[in-house]
Design a protein that fits this description.
Chain lengths: 299, 299
Amino acid sequence: MNFPNKVKINEVGPRDGLQNEAELVPAAAKIDWINMLSETGASYIEVSSFVHPDWIPQLKDATEVAKKIKRNPDVTYAALVPNNKGLDRALEVNVDEICLFLSASETHNKNNINKTIDQTLPIIENVSSKAKESNKQVRGYVSTVFGCPYEGDIDVEKVISICDRLFTMGVDEISIGDTIGVADPVQVDKVLTKLLKYFPKDKLAMHFHDTRGTALANVLVSLNHGITNFDSAVGGLGGCPYAKGASGNLATDDLLYMLHRMGIETGMNIDKVIESALYIENYVSSLSSHQMKIINSER
Amino acid sequence: MNFPNKVKINEVGPRDGLQNEAELVPAAAKIDWINMLSETGASYIEVSSFVHPDWIPQLKDATEVAKKIKRNPDVTYAALVPNNKGLDRALEVNVDEICLFLSASETHNKNNINKTIDQTLPIIENVSSKAKESNKQVRGYVSTVFGCPYEGDIDVEKVISICDRLFTMGVDEISIGDTIGVADPVQVDKVLTKLLKYFPKDKLAMHFHDTRGTALANVLVSLNHGITNFDSAVGGLGGCPYAKGASGNLATDDLLYMLHRMGIETGMNIDKVIESALYIENYVSSLSSHQMKIINSER
């Protein structure tokens, strides 16, 4: 096996983490927390989501949070945007990067945003082009790539065709999501082998959830394919929307433990990451990261 | 990457799991539980440890448990044995396989059994030879191979020399242990590359703990080396003696989820394994397996 020397980590805790936690975290705490995250060596932080506040009440304070955080010039601050209205709000607070999203599963997309995939694509194409006019980086999220709670297996050809549309509309990078944390290493190997026939490896990020404990094994396979871009959330924030109490996003701290010990650089400080996980733990129910379990057991 | 089609799993929950849990489980519950495990398709179950009851009070009922379980002829029932006295007790109840143990770390061995490695080897050599005379299979455990809580890194040459002694004394198989769950995939790759220069892959089993979340990634690297023999404990029993509340043994149910989805046969039934984990959960504090978290969140 052959691994890269350096990896970029995208901290998605304030967005993908908090949006799946039951608790509403006060804006002031989010701001303090993101300020802590900004000092961990992170180069990318997803601060919130500019969806309609009724959709995700946990992130209804997106504008306030994005406005009041202290910007570290070494960090790209990103936010999720579903449509032009969301884009206007994101541009108003001048986030650095715009994240578009859709699902590789027709049913999941429909249940998530009440539109078919074909109805969704022109909307985000429009957002992408406007974001580009405003000189913003654009990231695309493709979710449920490795399995859907409604449809089960997802055809890789469908994922390829969606990625193709996203890159054609000018998206800079696509995050390939295992939204419900079902992927196994053989599947990741197969999916990446196909995707990398069409798209360059430095344009893809992998987004694993640790619901069934396979996230780091899936990271390993991705590293072996030369992927150097991974999404994660401090403390393993985010649970699983389909099984409350289950593990959520791959924990940034678990990812850092493995990568650093493998001799792979990330630029991030694991102690500071754990500190920021301990901070947000005061506002949500128990976190699922292994590093946190060790720390908490020693307190 | 290249993976085997079939893997053997050694269920160590009743021994390595329970010995690291704070609670004393009643013998009757252990017996019921091991009887459940015997019906999961498991081919190997480590039922207890014949160490002095003062050392590990959790397993002081080894004789009663081994005597009263219902033996499934398809299962090898094994037990840990530290010396001739322990062997006599194990032979009295006619376990199928005798497990010897020592640490690759001098300090850990001393703290664990109050003897140097050089003092330990002749003792277990004697036990091994007597066990063989009684037509028993003999398994050797080498612990703290990937790191020791007292000494830190362990020299692989030390591990090789211990394994060599064990195989020379007639041990049939050696379990290579990451006792405190620190191993990373690059380290596992390096250690296995060296070990497999000296010893055949079908004589080695890998014993990972999931303390830091890396167990399945380490299994993946081992599979890629052709290892087909893994130790695990249902529900992730066993905690971590150095950080109470932290994750313990690699959960058999997590291991099965990954292997089965990768298309690798184990002969075990994951639903029955989870049932047996739910049973023992009534007697110990919360289990750490991801499959259990999903099940418990749905109850």
